[in-house]
Each structure stands twice: as C-alpha cells, then as structure tokens.
Predict the structure.
Amino acid sequence: MGLIKEYETERMTEGKEIGVRGIEERKEFLSKYPIEDIPKLTIEQYTLGDGSFSYWLCHRLRNFASMGDTRPSAFGVYTTKEKGSQIFLSKSCEKNFGSDSEKAFSRLRDAIVNFLEDIRHENYDNYEKYKGIDHNLRDMLMVVYFYDRFVPVCTERKINDCLNSVSISFEKKLSRIYKNLALVKWKKTVPELADWSNQMVLDFCDWLIRKNKITNKEELCINTVKKIEEKINSLNVEGASKKAIINARVNQGIFRNLLLKRYSRCCLCDVENQALLIASHIKPWAESEPKEKLDVNNGFLMCPNHDKIFDKGYITFDDDGMIIISDRLTENDRKFFNVDSRKHIELIEDNKKYLKFHRENIFIDN
C-alpha cells in the first residue's frame, strides 16, 4: 500500500475534521481582527484576556496552526495568567523602550502592519528584517492572514521536520519563509497532493513524522501511476483502445489539472475554453518511466488540433520553443491546423529533456 493510500485510510478523515475546525477558528479570529483594523489595535486588545489578539494567536487557533511552546514574551508586549492585567515587556522591548509599554506597543504594532504589507506584496526577502517581531509570531501572522500561500507551520523545528519527512533538501540557515514556500511548491508538483489544502499537507507531514516514515516526490508519483495502470490493465484491452483509455484517464485527472494550473490555455494558439483543452504528453505515457508519467514538465496543454499533430509527430519544438514542422504536413494541412514557422511555445528548462525525446523518436523527420 502506498503512503498516500495508507494516510487516507488511517488518518485523512480525522485530519479533514481538524481542518474544518481550524478554518472555523480562523474565520472567527479574522472577524474580530481583520487585517485592515490592525493599525487601530489598542494595547488592551493586543494583550488582555482570552479574547485578546495575542491569546487568540497562541491558544485559540490550535486546530489551525500551533505556535508550539511559544512563551508570552514572544509577543513583545504581554500579560501573564499569574499577574492578570499587568503588562510586561520582552527583554528586547525593555532594552529599547524602558518601561514605556505604550511606546513599545506602538512600535510593535507598526512593525506588524509593515510586515503584513510586505507579505501581501510578496516582498519575502524582507522577512528577516523584522527583528522586533519574534519568528514564531511572524509565521503565525503570515499563515493566518495569507493562508492560501503558506503551510500553517509556525516553529523552526516543525518546518524542518516537515521538509525532512518529504525529502526536501534545504540549508539550515535558509529563511523560514522560504522553507515554507519550498513545501508549498513541492505540494504543487505531486499530482495526488496538488489539490490538497495547505493544512492537509501539514497533517500528512505530521502523520509521516509520527510514523517515522520518509517519502519523496518520485515515490508518491510512482504509486499514483501504479494505481492508474492497475485500473487500466484490469480492463484487458490493448493497442489503440488501451491508448484511448490512458488518454481519457489522464485528461480526467490530476495531470490535466496540473497543466491547467500552469498554462490555462493552449500553449500554441491560446484557445482557453477548458472543455476543449487536452493534456498532451511530450514523451508518451507508454515510453515514460513511472516518475515521468505524471511529471507536469512532460506535458503541454493543447487544443484538439495541435494535440493531434503533436502526438502524431507532425510538429515538434526546438530548445528555444520554435516550432519545427514536418514536410509531411502539406501547405493546405498547415492552414487547416493553424501552424506556420513563426509559431513558438514558452518552455522551461525541465521541458527540454522530454522535447529531445520527442524530436528524436516521435517527430516525422523529412
């Protein structure tokens, strides 16, 4: 049994339930503390009681994201359960502002506003400049207010464990925000995980960590391919019929979804009606290694006309993306299929190894 199937059987239902509770917690928090109201946040709203901004982030969003064993002082300006409404300053705030809690809070609030504005505009290189905001608090702020961009992980140890659990290599000194983004990017390249929420990805990583298991993109993709091929082989068909079933499966599933997210229209002619677009393998399914079959870099999104002549080898592309047209395609056919020597396709580096195979093995040379 593959790890995804094992996770789905053993844990996914509970993970989804926790996810639903987490989304509700976040929704309630955002109704109390919308991002546009943070510039008006008072020191009392920030610190006092179990409805405060700080208490919510640290304790009342546990199903959404955890700050681990973060101490109250991580919030810069804080109260403690033992001392009630007495306001304290962290050592760094005390060093800069003495006992002036109002001035310390005003400076902290401004930093939070600027930090969130940088995240909003994807100025991720600025993450490390906000020394006055604790790392765990920075991470909690960005995952709460920009949930779709990040996996809800708020501690150094947790993000490192998550990356290790799925075999993503990283430098220890790499900024935590880029570690998080690496995990999100990895998710998008794994077909069966691509449509999962970021919260579900975290739950999957947590499950791997608890089970002391490690996986990687190639292993997960191979297991997905095996499931598809087992279903196809159970139908006992060969030849053109088998190819038609493979094409149908691919164009109903995750490979097509990945290509739609990357291109959204025909790579060659800009047809954008999704009902007409086809997930076209560059290196054919039958010729591909298991890890290549669902690799989004081994595909283009094409309209039916261009898919057909690409699949049959009447056109291909060089490493600059310029079209190469077989002499077997007559001038009349070229007009009908809307191809000429000026057309080109946008490539990324990882397309090129597959196009090399297509030129050498599929293209009908003159």
